[in-house]
Amino acid sequence: MKGLLDRRLLVFLGKGGVGKSTLTAAMGRLLAARGRRVLLCEINARADDAIGSQARLPPALGLPAVPPEITEVQPNLFLCNIQPEAALHEYVLLKLKLERAVTKLLGNRPVRSFLRMIPSLSEVVTLGKLLHHVRERRRGSFRFDAVLLDAPSTGYGISLLGVPQVLLRSLPTGPMREDLEWMRAILVDGSVTAVHLVTLCEELPVSETLELSAALRDPLGLPRGLCFANAIWPSRFDASELRELESRTPSPVFETARRMQAQADVNRHQLARLRETLDLPIVELPLAFDAPDAAAVTARVQRQLEALLLHEAAAQASQ
Q1: Is residue 80 a contact partner of residue 28, using CB atoms and an 8 Å limit?
Q2: Measuring CA to CA, which residue among 309, 271, 273 is closest to residue 287?
Q3: pLDDT in tens, 65-120
Q4: What CA–CA distances, in Å, run from 205 to 101, 258, 269, 306?
Q5: Where are the domains positioned within the chain?
Q6: Among 195, 218, 217, 199, which Cα is nearest to 208's?
Q7: What is the pLDDT of residue 289?
Q8: Using CA atoms, how far apart are residues 57 and 80, in angstroms rounded to an integer?
Q9: CA dihedral of 274, 275, 277, 281, whole degrees rounded to 10
Q10: First to last CA, the chain
């Protein structure tokens, strides 16, 4: 586990609602507490688009809304909300070097309409901004020791990570191809990048996780890391105990116990399915029943990850 967390780019990918933001925030806090300078990134829709425009990482850290620009929110911990139009502005500025010219160019309505018609341009500039920070240097060393991405859900996440490979098949020689080549080089480098899968142990999320893993391996060839099996219900009762509860307790109490155990059984069945099919290490994270808010859940997950790392270190020391 430790070796896979030492990469400079950690991507957390999975179906919507499986806990990617919580895990990204918890991992960021853990790495920052260990002295690493960490940038947490998420990708939002345009500011004028109500769908998907709500930031997820600040609530997971117990913070109010923060500006989309890189902002230090805790010692060694930075947030960045990557927005495609702002990323496009930064990209063109890197090429033209003149702020006034870029502002005038991108402020032209026909130019903006034309740019929106270019296939995958939004994905290119979004991914380019993320990977720029992975290789960004200050005073001869990397600005950030780790960049963590709370990736968009499944389909868009895969298309975002795969855009360099797709475009390089047909793009002619030129500045755009050069940019895509260095982006692709970072993504496929297993010493730099690890794509971690996040899932709930339920039928649809597990099925999607297996498909994601296959897509990352082939044809994208991206280095996969761990699979985090999130929010696992504890198994409290066996069949004989449930029968005894049914005979000795009020019906509502028994029904609650039965439903809890049914969910736990589903989790165990799907976890077994993951272990049989997925060729990745699986990290089990229990459900946080009594956490009062998103920040408390993040803190709980952080402690669980710290315990796993300590256990791994102790096991290695004893060998």
Answers
A1: no
A2: 271
A3: 888 889 999 999 999 999 877 766 566 656 555 555 545 555 556 545 545 555 57
A4: 47, 23, 13, 25
A5: 2-230+292-318
A6: 199
A7: 80
A8: 9
A9: 100
A10: 16
Instruction: Give the angle 174-179-184 at the CA atoms, nearest 5°.
Output: 125
C-alpha–C-alpha distance, residues 212 and 209, integer Å: 5
Q: How many residues does the chain have?
A: 319
Percent of the chain at pLDDT exceeding 70 = 87
Are 17 and 290 in contact by the 8 Å Cβ rule? The answer is: no
Please tell me the predicted confidence (pLDDT) of residue 153.
87
Report the candidate in 211, 210, 164, 171 with the shortest Cα–Cα distance to residue 189: 164
User: Tokens for 97?
Assistant: 């070097």
**CATH number of the 2-230+292-318 domain:** 3.40.50.300
Angle at 156 between CA 3 and CA 224, to 5 degrees: 20
